[in-house]
């Protein structure tokens, strides 16, 4: 299977991981903030237990030590976390590595780590967290994809299902989705719509 899947939900709890796994999401990122090492390890272990035996791949955001200790297979790092992470240890543990980027300097920094995918954002304005970067716009996706070549490109930030066709047409391989699922009036129906419109095999 390609990695990550074209529909790539990002959630902040094990309950969401369980819900999306039951709905058939192929790749789910667990992004729970401000945990100490013990709490991070506990939540990663719990999320891995939920996805065990299913086709769903769990991507751990930020907590690289917990990911290694819990036996996770996939990791995503922002630039700040990348600066503090032991990338050789991550690679020795066999984890895949995705990295967030927002400008050319961050892209150069990410590419030096030979990541398994690059994330670009925010594509559109987002209210979920304060961003020091302006929205990138769809055109930047095409430029980024030309720069990174065969490395999968994940678009993130304010993207809704109705915009997905244009995002993919611009060159994205995957769309990371947060509020379009977690703040939707009917999250389950929205997930099914994503999976119906954008199954893994094009």
Helix content: 40-55%
Oligomer: single chain
Number of strands: 8
Which radius of gyration do the C-alpha atoms yield?
16 Å
Mean pLDDT: 95
Low-confidence stretches: none
Structural class by helix and strand composition: alpha/beta
Order of strands, main sheet, comes to: 1-2-3-4-5-6-7-8
| Global geometry | globular
Taken as a percent bin, the fraction of beta residues is 15-25%
How many helical elements? 10
Characterize the largest beta sheet: strand count, sense, and whether it forms a barrel.
8 strands, parallel, barrel
- Terminal CA distance reads 12 Å
Description:
It is a single chain. With 202 residues, this protein is α/β, with parallel strands linked by helices. It is 42% helix and 18% strand. The chain contains ten helices and eight strands. The chain has an eight-stranded parallel beta barrel with strand order 1-2-3-4-5-6-7-8, surrounded by four helices. Strand 2, helix 2 and strand 3 (57-61) form a beta-alpha-beta unit. Helix 1 (14-23) runs parallel beside helix 2 (37-51) and helix 2 (37-51) packs across helix 3 (64-70). The longest helix has 15 residues, at 37-51. It is globular and about 40 Å long. It starts with 6 loop residues before the first strand and ends in a 5-residue tail after the last helix.
Brief account:
The chain is of the alpha/beta class and 202 residues long. It contains 10 helices and 8 strands. Strands 1-2-3-4-5-6-7-8 form an 8-stranded parallel beta barrel, surrounded by 4 helices.
